[in-house]
Design a protein that fits this description.
alpha/beta, about 40% helix, TIM Barrel, two-stranded antiparallel ribbon, eight-stranded parallel barrel, 10 helices, 10 strands
Length: about 290
């Protein structure tokens, strides 16, 4: 894809949570990244004023970078009613705050988050039907806010959730007749269920408002047990086909590296996420040149 490297960014999450935004942007820009996906580590509307949140855009711009979106990713399938209600309210607050600073894409998913302690186990602890009803109840409240502020809900199918690949995400997208029900195209999760990734991209088409670069290898189960998210190019994703399919649907957004090669991060990189960002950028360059 022509000019793809000018559209590659990095998700600033674990490993960057204690680093000032201006330093994060400077470090990533020096590597070559041209966009950043802020997570709730830095984007905190309950603790920060609109002016402070706007600085997340400004410091990126100062380094020649764009803010692709906000990574919200709260769990709406939890047994504690107060926690679930708070997650819905916080999502609504994040949507409004994002719009206030000119960001109109947020990354969301329904849950359950199986990597979190105490997560809901389906079907052992909750029926799939009950889990879906919780998800629908959350989106019933979130979508009107997204529509009001014209912010795309870029839904990501994630391992272990009720929405984990193309087919399991369809009920969520089809239930709501809203142009703001969008998709984050992350090929790593669908690959675990052996989705045909280029075909899936063609099916979602213009609904794709955000994209991740993350590889995977293995089978559904638990991260670092039955599957891993290895270094880019080390897994099963056919990257030329991915990039070609994204070009064919006319995707013009950013491609954000989401680094989750946790074994390598812990044992080799010694928890140095900046080093992970460097390795990932070199991998993207190599894959684009294939």
């Amino acid at each position: 894809m022509s000019g793809l490297l000018e559209r590659v960014g990095f998700l600033a999450r674990e490993g960057f949570e204690d680093t000032a935004p201006e330093i994060v942007c400077r470090q990533l820009s020096e590597i070559g990244y041209r966009a950043i996906e802020w997570s709730r580590h830095h984007f905190r509307p309950r603790e920060m004023s609109t002016a402070q949140l706007k600085q997340l855009v400004n410091v990126a711009s100062d380094q020649g970078m764009a803010v692709s979106n906000i990574f919200i990713a709260l769990d709406y399938i939890v047994t504690d009613d107060q926690v679930r209600a708070d997650h819905i309210r916080l999502t609504q607050e994040c949507i409004e705050a994002a719009a206030d600073i000119g960001i109109h894409v947020v990354n969301v998913h329904p849950g359950p988050q199986r990597w979190m302690p105490g997560h809901v186990r389906i079907p052992e602890e909750m029926s799939e039907g009950t889990a879906w009803q919780m998800a629908f109840d959350a989106y019933d409240q979130i979508i009107p806010v997204a529509e009001k502020w014209q912010v795309y809900l870029a839904n990501e199918g994630v391992w272990g959730m009720v929405t984990h690949d193309y087919y399991s995400t369809l009920p969520l997208i089809q239930r709501y007749d809203s142009p703001y029900q969008a998709i984050t195209m992350d090929p790593s999760h669908g690959n675990l269920w052996r989705n045909d990734i280029p075909w899936v991209i063609g099916q979602w088409g213009k609904r794709i408002k955000h994209a991740h670069l993350k590889d995977s290898i293995g089978t559904p189960g638990y991260d670092q047990d039955t599957f891993i998210f290895p270094l880019l190019g080390e897994g099963q994703i056919e990257w030329p086909g991915y990039f070609q399919a994204m070009e064919e649907i006319g995707y013009e957004g950013y491609f954000i590296v989401e680094f989750e090669s946790w074994f390598y991060y812990e044992k080799v990189l010694r928890r140095d996420m900046l080093a992970a960002a460097r390795i990932s950028y070199d991998a993207v360059k190599a894959l684009v040149e294939v």
